Amino acid sequence: MVQETNQKPVIFLSEGTKRTRGRDAQAINILVAKAVAEAVKTTLGPKGMDKMIVDELGDVIISNDGATILEEMDVEHPAAKMLVEIAKTQDEEVGDGTTTAVVIAGALLERAEKLLDDGIHPSVIVKGYRLASRKAREIATQVADKISIDDKAMLKNIAMTAMTGKSGAEAEESLATIVVNAIMQVAEHTKEGIVIDKDMIKLEKKEGATLSDSQLINGIVIDKEIVHADMPKRIERAKIALVDSALEIKETETDAEISISDPEQLQAFIDKEEAMLKDMVDQIKKAGANVVFCQKGIDDIAQHFLAKAGIAAVRRVKKSDMEKLAKATGARIITRLKDLNKEDLGFAKLVQEKKIGGDAMVFVEGCRNPKSVTILIRGGSEHIVDEAERAVNDAIGTVTAAIKSGKIVTGGGSIEMEIAMKLRDYATTIGGREQLAIESFADALEVIPRALAETAGMDPIDTIVELRAKHRGKDGKYLGVDVYRGKLADMSKLKVIEPLTVKTQAIASGAEVAEMILRIDDIIAGSAKSKGKGSPSESSEFE
Ligand code: ADP
Ligand code: MG
Q: Is the Cβ atom of 492 under 6 angstroms away from ligand 1?
């Protein structure tokens, strides 16, 4: 035993093969996972605190967003990485509830630790947790309410719930409206139901002005300027060419050792280059384009020819923007200008350059595909627009998830309390040691109202006791934590609404990672495969 406890825990996989087994391995993994969950727990909810993450280069990120914090945190331990993974999955699947998923995972492991201390075998805990996870999601689905895509007011509540605490409070309302309108715009009613392609909503940020100056643009906004002063700045009925190669003469073609002995030769050389560039512009002209978006550079001389032809051009457009432009305008991205045809051009009613916050941006409005929209986020500083972007992203995720599943629940810890209560009833029907695990699962879910109560300065124990009692009574279903007033309240009246899938996904992934960690009873530090050979200490040991 002494040997066991003296053994150094493997926290970082490095030099040599170290090994930690059995209960020790579990204890370390649980410890690490709990620490990660603890780190993000205080950010939960609208009154949650922000985290400031400073990287090696001194760059600073201030965020309240679980996924962002975890992504930026430099975690090394594999158990910590597993938690970061579930936050990412949660973000991709439903776009919100990342902190919730991680905090639930942490709480599940904390409860599991107690069960392990009581001598309950990990496989029993895993089995109980699995039953509980399935039942919890079933309960959530049963208590959820229906929502229709036409219920704009409710969708706005969902957007606001996702954004509270993440952006300036005064702007949440206008941003929520923008998000809902954007989604309505891109939503397609098909035979299989409503399809929402979130990629059709482009987010563009520009510092300056305030969050409430953010706007929804019917089309695509490109954060670039029209490249030459003599080009038109406003083009109606735009015929758009998308080119992903440079409108330049490749350096290799001219840089090659050329020894020019007389001025005539030099002139001939320059003329040739100019002719080649003119030829490129002629191809564009011939196809009938009056706007060009180029992913690479555009030579000064080519710019001049384009301007002379009355063609507006934008250079160094991001690849992702090129793809969005293709989708929105119906244009085909061309690599060889020789291939450019009339059919490859896209269409927009209006392309114009506008000054936003002192910088020029190009607006492509009235696209062939009316489903593409841009949310232009404004705000006083880089940190504000960045955090607002994350908030808008979460809101897009939740509103989409709500429309897709057609079901919503109330937040503020109310749904977690309701599930916990019904889960305890279910546990008694299972009996045995699994019952204990299911009850622990129920306790673990209460971490959400507890954490919310803590951010509001309420007594967490009193809060849980009162919530438990009142959820048993009639009209208790929606009771949760009103973090602003520091008391319990009906969350449906406060309009704290979330999509069902954010909760079911958070519970599922929290349970999954807890299960995965509980199953591990051996940590073996391997050497990095990419290094080819083992680490020096390892090789000396075995030689
Ligand atoms: P996550 O990354 O899990 O989405 P958040 O920091 O966004 O974490 O917090 C989400 C939690 O905050 C949810 O439980 C949600 O119900 C709760 N919440 C949101 N708005 C309110 C509110 N106005 N009052 C009480 N709780 C709220
Ligand atoms: Mg959230």
A: no
